[in-house]
Amino acid sequence: MNVTLVHDWLNQMGGAEDVLLELAAMYPENPIYTSIFDPAQLPAAFGALDIRTLWMDRLPSVHRKHQRYLPLYPVAWGAFEPPPTDVVLTNKSGFCHGLRKPTGAVHVCYCLAPTRYVWQFDAYIQREGLGRATSAALRPLIAMLRRWDYAAAQRVDHFVAISTEIQDRIRTYYGRESTIIFPPVDTTRFAAARTDEVGDYFLIVSRLIPYKRIDLAVEACTRLGLKLKIGGRGRDLDRLKALAGPTVEFLGYVPDDELPGLMARAKAFLFPGFEDFGITPVQAQAAGRPVIAYASGGALDTVVPGLSGVLFEEQTLDSLADTLAAFDAAAYDPTAMQAHARRFDRLVFHRELAAFIASAWHARAG
């Protein structure tokens, strides 16, 4: 069975690109097709892959400002047909699911999210700080893109969703059903610390951007006089520092080799934002530490109250502060949390996705 991989764009590293590396390890026989590719912005592992781009890769400044070419992605993907293959596997958060499927192939879409700035436009413009005039000018374009995106989704043979949240959105926006296969997490990187090594600090590791709602954790820990370490960089750093009291420490970028120990020694990991899935809460549990998360999105799949953490119900300062004040880290068993985290391990992802794709192909071929 021949599987061809397709990815929206490759000009930054994130969760979608982590998934792509796992897919490339599973199915190394073919090139990977994408709209644009900027190897300078990606880890060296991508340099070893056979990555082939669409004509959009030659557009001026597209690697740095790919959003400005938003109307062209449907045009580019709608005209693209991969070479003959058994299965086309699209790793989609944008428009690549709108490609032309080769004759006789099965199209499986691993859906990271229905295109956010198409279907959740108001939240997107608020997050990006776009003005009213820009918003009004874009709305006719967004309406057109919604029609295209919906039609493209109807041509997909099988959808796979990364979480219950994304499964619900696929049903709401596309009118399609899907199977949930959680994204891959390398849980073997993490190990629990001895009880006497666990510190008294709460931890966040994240990009520092407004929708992550790290401000809630900063203000709650400042109010309660609790130690909070924050790893990561981003445009919200200055605002967060202005909110922070003396118990909040900003670590900057946390190297990969330092992350497991930092997580294993934390009292608990804080996850106050709304995410489609969320890798870091699973990593924290793999390190034997509980998670305090906002009760929404992917956290509802990964954090089990009483077993691996606690969920606070309202995305407000008071709700998080009350949860922190009542939190007892000793009530959680590190071994049980690690066992729960292994449900999301990369090898589970490999096994479940490979079985799904093989079943889809045999059903078509048989």
Q: Which descriptors apply to this entry?
A:
38% helix, 366 residues, six-stranded parallel sheet, 14 helices, seven-stranded parallel sheet, 2 domains, Rossmann fold, alpha/beta, single chain
Descriptive report:
The strands form 2 sheets. A 7-stranded parallel β-sheet has the order 3-2-1-4-5-6-7, with helices on both faces. It has 14 helices and 13 strands. The protein has 2 domains: 202 residues, Rossmann fold, CATH 3.40.50; 157 residues, Glycogen Phosphorylase B (Rossmann fold). The model has no long low-confidence stretch (mean pLDDT 94). It is an alpha/beta fold and 366 residues long.
List the helices and strands and how they pair.
Layout: E1 3-7, H1 15-26, E2 32-34, E3 51-53, H2 72-78, E4 87-92, E5 106-111, H3 116-119, H4 121-128, H5 132-154, E6 158-161, H6 164-174, E7 178-180, E8 201-205, H7 214-224, E9 227-231, H8 237-243, E10 248-252, H9 259-264, E11 268-271, H10 279-286, E12 291-294, H11 299-302, E13 309-312, H12 317-326, H13 334-341, H14 346-365
Helix pairs in contact: 7-12, 10-13
